[in-house]
Amino acid sequence: MNTIKPYLCLVLFAFITGTTFQVAKEALFHFSPAQTGALRFVLASILLFVFVFLSDRKLLKVNRENLKSLIFLGIVGVFGFNFFFFLGMRKASPVNAAIIVALSPAITIFLSYLLLKTKITILQYVGTAVSFIGVLVVISDGNLNSVRTVLEGEGILFIFLAAICWALYSVGMKKYLKGVSTVQITTFTSFFGTICLLLLIIFSGDYHIDWSKTPTSAWFAILYMAAFTTFFGYLFWNYGIQKVGPDKAAIFGNLIPVVAMLTTWFLGESLNVFDIVGAILVIVGIFVVNSKFGRNAATQNIKTSTVG
């Protein structure tokens, strides 16, 4: 069970995050990117601190050696990711955004090699490539010409920057906070990221919200992202990263477009053969990257330190 648990958490993370694209669009109809990120994380931080207070108050005390790392990762993984993601999602289509986000595993594997000195096996390269091809098949419905227009889409650069921030957050957590409680990492990175998001809307003057004209659906979108995408999503992801490593966990991000596709199916669109084939390729790629042979072949020499 202990062996399966991290992978189950990563699958749950992908499922929750895959439904966020449509939800984020609803929130961005009524809030600015900065407001959306701030509202989401203010609520999520409250939930996390209440959870820590009720479950283990010792986690409210942060080791000084870890404080700089938590601040750094909060700025990168919470503020940076959400700022660029919501800025990009304001103009990018959910489909195009999903393709760019699917590059995250490749970025994470590269950073794992660069920062963690992780030995990357051929199987990991192959599995990542197969999984990415699966994402392209799902998104393009077999018409790869449509993929060529992705880079021309509005907001794509910001989505790409968000993917880089997420990869840095994932690898940085393993490098700088090895052995630290998943709950503590999630709580305090969310807290420091929230402070940055609040400072952004204060200094930019982007804090005026017409509460009376904001529909219930917009608040539901914020609540969903706070409670599920952030509270549960970050906890699941951070736990998976700590247990299996960012180089193997990152590939689960390619399940996100598959879930996004299933979400549109649930909302009324029909599945086709390309959706099914693409989903199978994504899953095959995940199994290849996390295969027992690949784990035995790769040896890691991870050095831990504090940021700065």
Structure overview:
The protein has 308 residues and is mostly helical. Helices cover 73% and strands 0% of the residues. It contains 14 helices and no strands. The protein has helices spanning 4-18, 20-28, 33-55, 64-89, 94-101, 104-115, 122-140, 156-176, 182-204, 216-244, 246-249, 255-266, 273-289, 292-297.
SSE topology sketch:
Blueprint: H1 4-18, H2 20-28, H3 33-55, H4 64-89, H5 94-101, H6 104-115, H7 122-140, H8 156-176, H9 182-204, H10 216-244, H11 246-249, H12 255-266, H13 273-289, H14 292-297
Helix pairs in contact: 1-10, 1-12, 2-10, 3-4, 3-9, 3-10, 4-8, 4-9, 5-8, 6-8, 7-13, 9-10
Q: What Rg, in angstroms, do the CA atoms define?
A: 19 Å
Low-confidence stretches: 296-308
What is the mean predicted local confidence, pLDDT?
83
Dominant shape = globular
Helix content: over 70%
Protein name: EamA/RhaT family transporter
Organism: Leptospira stimsonii
Main location: membrane
Membrane topology: Multi-pass membrane protein
